[in-house]
Amino acid sequence: QVKKQCNQKLLIRMKTKCVPCSLNLDTQCPAGYTKITNGTGTPDCRYYLEIKKTYTLSFPGCRHHCVKEFEQPECCQGHWGPDCMGK
């Protein structure tokens, strides 16, 4: 039995929105993603507050890192088509 389907595993990474670190404890990753940071997340971003449409203030903030494993269907070498039958 020759293997025709050789799916590729991909890891999709994303970061949540930057918010004040004290508010980031309860931040969840989108559906299907797994949170890989703990507590308040990573303090590696800045968020902005607009004051009366005249000033914008920038503050250090936190965000979480999330990952999702995705399997991309692919045919093994020497096979092709929707059912990977070609030789």
UniProtKB/TrEMBL annotation:
It comes from Alaudala cheleensis. GO terms for molecular function: low-density lipoprotein particle binding; low-density lipoprotein particle receptor activity. The lineage of its organism: Eukaryota, Metazoa, Chordata, Craniata, Vertebrata. One of its GO terms (cellular component) is membrane. Keywords: Disulfide bond, Glycoprotein, Membrane. Its main location: membrane. The gene is Stab2_0. The keyword Glycoprotein applies. This is STAB2 protein. It is found in: Membrane. The keyword Cytoplasm does not apply.
